[in-house]
Amino acid sequence: MNDVVLELNAVVKRFDDHEVLRGVSLQLRRHEVVCLIGASGSGKSTLLRCANMLETIDGGSVSLFGQSLLDPRVDPDLVRRHIGMVFQSFNLFPHLSVLDNVLLGPVRALKRKKSDARDEALALLDRIGLRDRADDFPDHLSGGQQQRVAIVRSLAMRPDLLLLDEVTSALDPTLVGEVLDLLSDLANQGTTMLIATHEMNFARDVAHQIAYLDQGVLVEQGTPDQIFNAAQHASTRNFLERVR
Amino acid sequence: MTLGFDADTSNEIPNLFAPRRSRIFVGRRGVVASTISCVLILGIVVSVLFVAPGGASFRHVFFDPHEMWVAWVGDPRRGILAIKDGLVTNIWMFLVSEVLVLFLGLALAWTRMSQSPVLLPFRILATAYTDIFRGIPLLLVVFMVGYGLPALQFGFLSSQSFAIYGVISLTLTYSAYVSEVFRAGILSVPNGQLLAARSLGLTHASTMRRVTLPQAIRTVIPPLLNDFISLQKDTALVSVLGAVEATRAAQIAVSVDFNESGLTVAALFFLVLTIPMTRFTDHLLEKDRARRLVSSL
Fold first, then answer.
1. Among A85, A89, A92, whose Cβ lies nearest the Cβ of B199?
2. Residues ≥6 apart with Cβ < 8 Å to B15
3. Alpha-carbon distance B131 to B148, whole Å?
4. Which of A114, A115, B110, B247 satisfies CB 3.0 to 4.6 Å to B236 for a cystine?
């Protein structure tokens, strides 16, 4: 099949002698949403970072559109321009306005004309209802608004794939909804996403596939129905029992 | 058994008043208290000049108005050079040095933080440079440059004025300090910012230029100005070479009239130059603190 966007094959990642990922394999097809679940420290974030080359891997392989990212001729900066990433702590640039945050990637990395990129950025901000906040600085926005801007900042790069690293974990409970709603919209529009999350209801609703990670091992993967109602492994059932 | 404190069973209203003795420190009365203490302390310091056995001669030697004026405007007939002319030398020396230090300091910091394997020898050199010039006293650098470069007999490098050698010495030493200030500022930018920028596909250089440096500048300005204040004073050290700047002019006045009032004049004018800068730095620090308080809410 040529619609595989991202493929991880037996990926191993070590920090000193601690093995964070122990041979994880995962496939992500175009328009597919995969949710990574698992306890903190199970390797979800590391897995996402290996996918966009923020971390180098110590074993196995990662490929994007069938091209191995281990090839020394691959330029990480070019790879990352196709992969959006959203962080738990937003990481908006505090010295730039909301609009300039969204524009930085398209203008400085993709070298697009500022006027074109600007129209598109404003249209994106309009979609999340924050067009009138375009000239504000991030610290004047609520956490939920900041995170939605961070998502739009990634979308402005027109990525083929979006990586989301526990994007609601740092939010007030009252602000989680608006961010999850935006992600649901994106899923409905066919955005390809790999989502590390602790929001089980959201995962059940949005994901096509759920993958359960435990101590660097991908224990089990399946449809939400398979995982939530008929998990094969005791550790998966145990984990779901505890988060409920 | 109850945990912690026993519940207060009495219906007594707690006393919130400060004891009578310390009431002058509370509220608006605190202003009165601080004014009184300022006048008192200042009075004691000044009165030492009058009460001390050598007070009268001290005042004559260090604060003689006539001698101060002569030292300030100079007296060419008796070979006394004007401090006000010397001060011009100090001012252009520190202005030129500060601009050079800014560039060299940033270049050193950038080099030390570069990642390219090709730049390894430069990284080593930059590290050695900062170690060396933070370690050698500025006075020795001034001597080495001021006597060393002319001794080289190497074209224009060996035929400059002492003030130029002063600028070179100050730049060499202060670039080492300032590069560390820059480096600390750059390192203070949270890692998440770099991750976000690199995830957008920005190169290392564009991340530095668009994300890291603009945020580092904020943190860097107060300590940078601090180093500049120090640099402005240290222009006085160039006097050891014989360059005629304020300190040297004051020394000449002292040696001609056997009266130290010239030194007082020089000191006062160094204060006039540095105090606006110190106040401005404090103001920036206070503003930065307020900003941090707001953003942490």
1. A85
2. none
3. 21
4. B247
What tokens does A84 get?
């959006």
Query: What strand order describes the sheet that includes A59-64?
Result: A18-29, A4-15, A59-64, A67-68
d(CA A51, CA A65): 12
How far is residue A58's CA from residue A66's CA, in Å, rounded to a whole number? 20
Residue A81: its chain B contacts at CB < 8 A?
200-201
Residue A64 C-alpha, separation from nearest chain B C-alpha, in angstroms:
15
CA distance A230 to chain B (A): 37
ipTM score for this prediction: 0.93
Pairing between β-strand A209-214 and β-strand A217-222 as defined by DSSP bridges: antiparallel
How deeply is B32 buried, as exposed, middle or buried, from its count of CB atoms within 10 A (0-12, 13-18, 19+)?
Answer: exposed
Tens of pLDDT along chain A (244 residues) come to 468 999 999 999 999 989 999 999 999 999 999 999 999 889 999 999 999 999 999 999 999 999 999 999 999 999 999 999 999 999 999 999 999 999 999 999 999 999 999 999 999 999 999 999 999 999 999 999 999 999 999 999 999 999 999 999 999 999 999 999 999 999 999 999 999 999 999 999 999 999 999 999 999 999 999 999 999 999 999 999 998 7
In whole angstroms, what is the distance from residue A159 CA to residue A149 CA? 15
Q: What is the CATH number of domain A4-243?
A: 3.40.50.300
Does B197 contact chain A (CB < 8 Å)? Answer: yes
Encode pLDDT of B146-172 as tens digits.
Answer: 998 888 888 887 778 889 999 999 999
| Record: contact A80-B195, CB cut-off 8 A | no
> How far is the C-alpha of A27 from the C-alpha of A5, rounded, in Å?
8
Closest residue in chain A to residue B191, using alpha carbons only: A91
Q: Check CB contact under 8 Å for A91 and B196.
A: yes
Q: How far is CA B104 from CA B100, B113, B115, B148, B182, in A?
A: 6, 14, 19, 22, 11
Residue A40 CB coordination number (10 Å): 9
User: Would the pTM count as exceeding 0.80?
Assistant: no
